[in-house]
Amino acid sequence: MITVKIEGMDKTLKAIESSIGKSAVAAKVRQGMRNAKPEVKRVLGKEMRKAFKVNKAQFADRTWRISTDNSAMTIRSLVRWLGTHEGGTISARGKALLIPINTYLGSRIGTKKFYKLVDWLRQNKLTVIKNGVLYANPVWNTSKRGGVGVGTRINKKFRATLQGSLKRPSGFSVSPAFERADRLIPIAIIRRSIHMKKRFSLSDIAARSLRDIVAKHIQQELYK
Hints:
Blueprint: E1 2-5, H1 10-20, H2 22-51, H3 57-62, E2 64-68, E3 72-77, E4 88-91, E5 97-100, H4 111-123, E6 127-130, E7 133-136, H5 156-163, H6 176-179, E8 185-191, E9 193-196, H7 202-222
Antiparallel strand pairs: 1-3, 2-3, 4-9, 5-8, 6-7, 7-8
Helix pairs in contact: 1-2, 2-7
């Protein structure tokens, strides 16, 4: 969240107040800020599409919530993870950070679902840690039903729980188990902290263009 304040317009506002009154000026400032909203949203959407790969163009434009008062415009995003891309170091609250990898069909996995799967694997003693990577140790078939050898096919229940389905991918791909010599499935990288590169900064965008946009619309309203 960021607040865009009116700066450098004090003399202009006072001069106009002397002719039309303070309340009238305040009303024009509020209207100017409201008029600026569409252009501000367009700029934010453009900057977001420039910084990230956005599959749906409307997502970048509709993620913003903008409110105004007599002297400032407050901008916030509905995307919770956006703040992590302003740069800096993220440290673990506990012993380590777990960064999901090898998701099924490249799908995203939510925090709640991710830790639910990790807890399930740990409770069943199916996790292995090697060289800073957390692996799942899959459950293999124990019968020759279907004409296959024992230990050559992953248990159906395990597969469904870990990776979901084609229609609803919700976990990790089991494919690496058939490709790796150790037959393990990588699910997360373990780190004590990670340094995030600055990719999107609301404060930088505000300083670069948003303040000028708001000032322009307020001036247009004042001199009507």
